[in-house]
Write a structure and sequence with these properties.
Radius of gyration: 32 Å
Number of domains: 2
CATH class of the largest domain: Mainly Beta
Distance between the termini: 93 Å
Largest sheet: 10 strands, mixed
Number of strands: 10
CATH superfamily of the largest domain: Calycin beta-barrel core domain
Strand order of the largest sheet: 5-4-3-2-1-10-9-8-7-6
């Protein structure tokens, strides 16, 4: 080989070496993995993110665990006051008195005690003070709704004969499906009609529990809607 050819060959080899040794080429050949300086996500955060994503997925049934969304819900107390024309303010102690779950409760329009039965007070409490959580379980034509206080309402959609419960924490209700709405008609507190409607929101991301109350007297009908977001399933205690 002549000197000229050897020189050309050496120059070509040097050019190829420079091309393969550039930082861009070396970085392209680097093994896969996190970028320099990137912090790995702890497994606990990954699990929390996955759980949050699952909870926001649309649901296809009212069955499951739910938690109250106060921001999206109606104010039952205000609705009752408006129905009696008492939204102008209450300087004389009228209006609806709301106690705790175990405290005293007021009747419609602020009347207390007297003609109110335990059933009336329980229904008023349901209207005015919603549970902070609900769990709905389906058993064929039976839908068991349990609230955060472990009170239970059982909705039957097969027309069976219902039992009159002496336990205020347990109630059986006749119900039917009106489209996508689980609907139950009941006697309202102090007379009239009370209708409960349980349904999914149109996007499947929330649960609506709507109560229609019409006492058939001077007060106008009341419609109160409580909104619930998906919640993790409650833990099941072993041996319980």
């Amino acid at each position: 080989m002549s000197k000229a050819l050897r020189l050309i060959f050496a120059i070509g080899m040097a050019t190829l070496w420079c091309a393969f040794a550039t930082p861009g080429y070396l970085s392209a050949q680097a093994p896969p993995g996190p970028l320099p300086g990137a912090k790995p996500v702890p497994p606990s955060q990954q699990a929390a993110a996955g759980q949050a994503q699952r909870q926001t997925q649309p649901r296809t049934s009212i069955v499951g665990a739910w938690k109250l969304n106060l921001d999206d819900s109606d104010d039952g107390r205000k609705k009752m006051q408006q129905s009696r024309g008492q939204n102008r303010g209450n300087s004389g102690g009228g209006g609806v008195h709301i106690g705790g779950r175990t405290g005293g409760r007021g009747g419609w329009g602020g009347q207390r005690g007297g003609g109110e039965s335990d059933d009336d007070r329980r229904k008023m409490q349901e209207i005015l003070n919603p549970s902070d959580s609900l769990t709905i379980v389906q058993k064929d034509a039976e839908f068991d709704l349990t609230d955060g206080e472990h009170d239970q309402q059982v909705f039957y959609t097969d027309g069976r004969k219902l039992k009159k419960s002496k336990d205020s924490s347990y109630q059986e209700l006749a119900a039917h499906w009106d489209g996508t709405e689980l609907t139950s008609d009941d006697k309202g507190p102090r007379g009239g009609k009370m209708t409960r409607i349980i349904e999914l929101s149109p996007d499947g991301r929330q649960l609506y529990k709507t109560i229609h109350l019409d006492n058939g007297r001077s007060a106008s009908a009341v419609v109160v809607r409580y909104v619930y977001d998906p919640a993790p399933a409650p833990e099941i205690k072993q041996g319980s």
